[in-house]
Amino acid sequence: MTEQLNYFKWKQQAEAWMREAADYIRWQMHEQLDIKTKEHKNDLVTHVDEGVENFFINKISETYPSHRVMGEEGSFKKIDDLSGVVWILDPIDGTMNFVHQKSFFAISLGIYVDGEPAAGLVYDVMADELYSAVAGFGAFLNGKRLPKLGRVKLDESILSINPGWASKDETVRNLIETVRGARSYGVASLEIAYVASGRLDSYISLNLAPWDVAGGIILLQETGGLATNLKGETLTLLKKDSLIAANPSIHDGLVNRAFGTT
Ligand code: IPD
Ligand code: CA
Ligand code: CA
Ligand code: CA
Questions:
Q1: Which residues are listed for Mg(2+) 1 binding in this entry (predicted)?
Q2: Are residues 163 and 119 in the same domain?
Q3: Is the pTM of this model over 0.95?
């Protein structure tokens, strides 16, 4: 139980830092953005992404010197295992939305202890919607408990998926034809949070990094959802992988569909 008390403390602290970081983001959004590219011309990063990551690194190292940070904008390079307490951070998830749309982006954080979930937070900065959970104690949206997910039928479900995958991949086209409707938001952590809250029934990606999923999958676990890679295997959070985050009543159906076994 003392362990869980720590988890609540970390979650509360993380929430306060997220709100502070969000103020910085909302302020910088109207300044000139310093935009760079990373692996390819559409892989964007701004000084705000880096500023938010540095803000968290400073706060976490001052407050919890033994904790480590695995963040997208550089700090991940120091992490090759999940021993101890690791804060897995996406400082801005949905950078392309941030740059072009000024909305639909999130700060995502998963806190893990020896690889086991402790607390997850996903904050939609512009909608001011904070999804949070301490493992084992339910998930909340702006302080209101989210109910456990009810049953849905695969052919009446809503799937979120990047349309880019559909143009290249037959498996993805097959999945889209199976469900009632497909959507795309461009912000993985929030799409997983939407599955946790029932706004979506599933979210699929062929390639995500640990920081895209670490916060959201804790929320999802708390409302009874399932998150695996496309083969139905557990995610390691140490490498890039595919993802099916789904309502439990359709998760296996989607995995089977992806592999053409049904
Ligand atoms: C991206 C977003 C996007 C997903 C990409 C991610 P970023 O994260 O979550 O929705 O399709 O695979 O890389 O780079 O904006 O943090
Ligand atoms: Ca990125
Ligand atoms: Ca991301
Ligand atoms: Ca990011």
A1: 72, 92, 212
A2: no
A3: yes
